[in-house]
Amino acid sequence: MIEFEHVSKEYPGGAIAVAEFSCVVPSHRTVVLVGSSGSGKTTLLRMVNRMVDPTSGRVLIDGEDVRERDPVELRRSIGYVMQHGGLLPHRTVLDNVAAVPLLTGAPRRAARSAAAGLLERVGLDPALGRRYPSQLSGGQQQRVGVARALAADPNILLMDEPFGAVDPIVRRELQRELLQLQSDLGKTIVFVTHDVEEAFLVGDEVVVLEAGAGIAQRGAPAEILAHPANEFVRDFVGADRAERRLHAVDMDGRTVAVDGEGRTVGVLEP
Ligand SMILES: Nc1ncnc2c1ncn2[C@@H]1O[C@H](COP(=O)(O)OP(=O)(O)OP(=O)(O)O)[C@@H](O)[C@H]1O
Question: Model pTM?
Answer without folding.
Answer: 0.92
